[in-house]
Amino acid sequence: MAEEHSERYGVSDDEADIERVRLAMLSEARDPVTFALLDRVGVADGMHALEVGAGTGSVSAWLAERVGSRGRVMSTDIDLRFHAEMPSNVIVRQHDVTSEKLPSEHFDLVHARAVIQHLPEREDVLARLLEALKPGGAMVVEDGAMLEFAEQSLPEPYRSVHRLIAGASHEEWRDPNAGVRVLGWMRDLGMEGLEVIGDVWTMRPGEPAGEWWFLALERAVPRLVEFGVVSEADGSTLLAQVREPGFAMLSPTSIATVGRKPADG
Ligand SMILES: C[S@@+](CC[C@H](N)C(=O)[O-])C[C@H]1O[C@@H](n2cnc3c(N)ncnc32)[C@H](O)[C@@H]1O
Nearest-CA neighbor of 51 among 125, 92, 95, 112? Predict the structure, then answer.
């Protein structure tokens, strides 16, 4: 029987202001690492690139500069409310990567950061992205792994709630450890030149590298209180704990996986 997925990545109008700031923080904290990674993979003048789940579009704008006026970037997201204006060589599309068509064998590079982990159809999505790549083209997927993140030492009550959130099962709509699995999925799809690069960083309140998570927590806690998973008192204590001056915690591991479509098809 087909699996039902009632919950998905989604941002209500009430949550839009927090999501806008959160996505900007994610871009500010992670873009330098992503740009170095993409430079290492190779982004050249004239290339066609696809940015999936682009968020603010900051990676698309960077790619646009690299591919130049002879190149093209397709910047897609299911929700374009937070996407910035783009230069003329970027095509911005509202697009659901789980179900809507992409051009076949069209792109030299496909990149997705912090997207696959939110999609229940993640293995199918990788197959669709592979189909959209030209033979020899590169796929770069950055996703999280929360195994160590879940285990770290934290003050109660934040610790228990953190373990609940970070330790969610991969059978749910969000896979907190998708980053661990992408290499195997790419390998099983017959991709070549596989490579993984992982990194962790320090998350502090008031800094983009921490606030992308603390703001998500601010969004999640009222729901956990509503569903009776967390008491109102614990909810406000833990939100205060992560904002205490001097508070620091380990980030999830960001795992970037790179693979290429075989040149002969
Ligand atoms: C955590 S954000 C990451 C944004 C951006 N990639 C970044 O790293 O800054 C996840 C993004 O995936 C998008 N997304 C979620 N489901 C999607 C789908 N089915 N198709 C395309 N984009 C999707 C969301 O709208 C959101 O912008």
Answer: 112
**What's the chain's Rg over C-alpha atoms?**
19
CA of 84 to the centre of ligand 1 (A): 14
pLDDT band at 219; cut points 50, 70, 90: confident
The residues lining ligand 1, judged by C-beta closer than 6 Å to any ligand atom, are: 9, 23, 26-27, 53-55, 76-79, 96-98, 113-115, 118-119
Task: Kindly report the number of other CB atoms within 10 A of residue 204's CB atom.
Answer: 17
Contact criterion met (CB below 8 Å) for 139 and 128:
no
Closest atom of ligand 1 relative to the 11 alpha carbon: 25
CA 77 to chain CA centroid, nearest Å: 12
Asked if residue 68 has pLDDT above 90, the reply is: yes
65, two tokens:
């500069």
User: If you take atom 20 of ligand 1, which residue's CA is the nearest one?
Assistant: 96
How far apart, in whole angstroms, are the C-alpha atoms of residue 178 and residue 145? 6
Strand partners, 258: 140, 195
Class of domain 14-260: alpha beta
Distances (CA, A) of 135 to 43, 192, 240: 16, 11, 51
Express each pLDDT in 151-207 by its tens digit: 999 999 999 999 988 887 655 678 899 999 999 999 999 999 999 999 999 999 999
C-alpha to C-alpha distances, 132 to 4, 52, 136, nearest whole angstrom: 27, 12, 12
Task: Sketch the domain layout of the chain as residue ranges.
Answer: 14-260
pTM for the model: 0.92
